[in-house]
Amino acid sequence: MSDKTDREEQQVLELLNELRVILPGVQVLFAFLLTVPFSQRFAQLGPTDRGVYFAALLLAAGASAMLIAPSIHARLTWRNRNNDWLLRVSNPLAVMGGVLLAGGIACAVYLVADVLYRSSVAGITTAAVVVVILVLWYGIPFLGRVTGRAELSRE
After folding, report:
1. Of 19, 155, 153, 13, which is closest to residue 83 (Cα–Cα)?
2. Model confidence over 32-85: pLDDT tens digits?
3. Is residue 154 one of the residues assigned to a domain?
4. Helical packing angle, 3-35 and 47-77, nearest 10°
5. What pTM, to 2 d.p., does this model score?
6. Among candidate residues 143, 142, 140, 133, the one with its CA nearest the CA of residue 100
């Protein structure tokens, strides 16, 4: 095997391992959201909270689909050894899956905070969670790329 092939195989393995870390959280969120309509208090939710709930459910479903897709792609194309294609398709799916997951988390936090406090606490709490997620998931890596402190793949 060439160095490029070895490097691509290593990158595919790293990506799939990273997704294995993310997926349990997505699955727990999605499972929680699937049970919410069957709780006694769900009927008491107003139209806004129901809309936020449905948005959270759809975002979690979309995140699940995007974050699971690279594993399915790897399984379906494993004999082709087309790791370059797999990486080009899977990286954007993983990043967008993270964006949808962040949205689903934000909606779930808003919904819980609104049910508990019915006040501006929901908006403030959700905004704080969104800021933390944006900084930790996207801001720090972006800053590392801009400042040259993050290790970038060079081909």
Report:
1. 13
2. 999 999 998 899 999 999 999 999 999 999 999 999 999 988 888 877 778 888
3. no
4. 150
5. 0.85
6. 133
- 155 is a domain residue: no
Question: Is 33 among the domain residues?
Answer: yes
Structural domain tally of the chain? 1
| Structure tokens given for 53 | 């709930």
Instruction: List, as own/partner pairs, every contact residues 39-44 make where C-beta atoms lie below 8 angstroms and the sequence separation is at least 24, other chains included.
Output: 41/115
> Roughly how many angstroms between the first and final C-alpha of the chain, as a whole number?
16
Domain that holds residue 139: 3-147
- Whether 152 is in a domain gets the answer no
What pLDDT digit, counting tens, does each position of 115-155 carry?
999 889 999 999 999 999 999 999 999 998 888 765 555 44
What token pair was written down for 148?
Answer: 């040259």
How far is Cα of residue 25 from the mean position of the Cα atoms in its chain? 9
Rounded CA-CA distance 49/85 in Å is 41
